[in-house]
Structure prediction request, 220 residues.
Amino acid sequence: MPGQELRLAAEGQVTALRFASVVAFAEWWERLFAELVLLSVASSLGWLLGDSAKELAFEYQWPEPAYGARLAETLGGEVRWAAGANAIRVPARRLDLRSPFSDPPLFEHALKRLTEVIAAQRAPDSLKGQVERLLAHSESGRLAAQAVADSLGMSHRTLERHLADEGAHFRDLVDAELSARARRMLDANVLTRTEIAEQLGFADVTGFSRAYRRWLRTAI
Prediction:
């Protein structure tokens, strides 16, 4: 989920998955993101927990919306409105369940990527670092420079100028993110090149192959 940070916290017999935005959004966007996270995670956990999914508890930091009853029914567990933060609470005893979607090689690559993201988040909060985080949280690794500038509350020209002051260029940051994703996907050997090209936002595999060769030449 672009711009969202998720953290696990053990709280006795319950484990809480808390989530919040890492960049500033309008409140209606914040609410939309929160509801999307609640619904998507609840759906995933429903596949894993089955009937036990009714033991989940959901916390939503804003007052109950007009469609609150429908949202609560869809989530399927207890819902607490106007909570201190957005969170999903799972009974700790359920954490030992093995996921039916378990894929050890993919897990190792995901864990490596998460470690890289956490390291970047803990680095000094430069503009370059903020842009890298936004790209890392995007679906395909691509974002328009104007969209990033809007998210950071500045003009496109100001974004490019400040990045240049830090010795960076927006296009190069996008290429770096796409190149890193491509290497991980190729190393995982799970997706075809056509599927990788699609996930990275290329029109066809030829465009992806041409870009990948360029990234390799740049890295040498």
